[in-house]
User: Fold this.
Amino acid sequence: LNTQNKKQIQNLKKLFAQGTLLGMNAARTSLLCAQRESSASPERQSRPAYETLPRT
Assistant:
């Protein structure tokens, strides 16, 4: 391998790592959204968000 090839491989590895991180973040976000939607009951969803907060 010459230096050009090594550089390309390093860049690809970097891009791949960034891609997997982005993918994991996206998956985590959509999972959280799905959980939030399923845990919120329909009558709570129709109210404004501040009304669903627990009152102290």
The chain is about 80% helix and 0% strand.
